[in-house]
Amino acid sequence: MNELKKYAVWLVTGSQDLYGDEVLRAVDAHTREMVEWWNEDPLIPCQVVWKPVVRNPEEISRILAEADSVEECVGVIAWMHTFSPAKMWIGGLQRLRKPLLHLNTQYGRDIPWESIDMEYMNLHQSAHGDREFAYILARMRLPHKTVAGFWQEERTRRRMGNWMRAAVGVAESRRLRVLRISDNMRQVAVTDGDKVEAQMVFGWQVDHYGVGDIVRATEAVTETEIDAQMADYAAHYDLDTDRLEAVRYQAREEVALRRFLEWGGFGAFHTNFQDLQGLRQLPGLAVQDLMRQGYGFAGEGDWKTAALCRIMKRMTADRSGGTAFMEDYTYHFDPANPLELGAHMLEVCPSLACERPRIRVEKLGIGDREAPARLVFRAKAGPAVLATLVDMGDRFRMIVNDIDCVEQERDMPRLPVAGVLWKPRPSLETAAEAWMTAGGAHHSVLSYALTAEELEDLAELLEVEYVHIGADTDVGALRRELRWNDGLYRR
Ligand code: MN
């Protein structure tokens, strides 16, 4: 089954008691048909659940409270097929904590010129019914997305699907536990932040464990478990080294880390190369293989990027494409072919690979430990996004850059890590200036499987400042936007 189908969104259709049973029966029949149709549609990632039409404040409050309490429900789609006076919605909406999509559609696409009469008009009222509803959303300043368009139209379904993906991200965010192994890299600013605020805004429970706990867990791993992990590596990767003991040590670390993550219900984690204590290698291959399985990760104590990585991986669990922790590494300032190389010292997720990854064992200049095993590969070409989350002191800011990953044409025989080459939009220089003007981190999450619109929906639903850098970005205009935002978000 499609991974995202286990998440449900409820279609709640508003009306009132004015119209009589016949009209309301027609409303229910129409919405049943729409839900069945959407559930066959590949652009609709989640299960859409039909609910009977609601006619008064009691029914509205009851259905929204139920949506809030049912775990598999990640959001509510509200649609006013007929007119539903919006004061009836205030109480229910005040308590709704789940993501809301306001769908402004119409059951019949075209005006039936020959047969249209007042009966038809009584049933097809969303052009004004949805405006009444939209007013109260605007008046209450409720975070939501509005999608207008015929319900079978590709644009409508795609935009609904984007919101659903963001709603899955919100659900994952609110239940996320992040495992911190050690603390942040010493003196680094951007990877740190306010964990209490993060829990209030995103719902993340960010917990620290000492490296000694992980060391003890690695010591408890048996040779049989390491053999099984090695067999799993052989199924996914090629061995490009004869230093098997080093690879087996990563297998040991992976078994230990996975056991720890499962024990604590953690969806994301970080390491810190400055604090390895009794670990013989910085986890490399171990971390890369855990990312392939869907865990969020970031290096150097970067708990925010690890969490964002997990959320973006869950939002795309039904899509191939690849989503990974990334770091801006090196520029290629050739005016004929400007590029940026993204990589990390070890931990690049194999979901980005365009070829079968190879396991290699190479010396690591920092961390002062044995040469770690890691996966090396070339990355896919194609459009992607880079996303980062920074703590501005009075708020979190999400920054998203549209990029185009390109095929790696030249070999880098002496570089023993996986890397991705990309051209940022609108250009290497402008994107870098815009990203840094906004305070964007050197750590980010790269995804071939998400679009900027889906991440904007996520930021909107989480009520986080969103900064987009794309084809139209102008640094001067962006600087003014950031200055205005400083005023808006000041508390
Ligand atoms: Mn880093």
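^ manganese (II) ion complex. The pocket of manganese (II) ion is lined by residues 299-300, 327, 344, 443 (CB under 6 Å). The mean pLDDT is 97.
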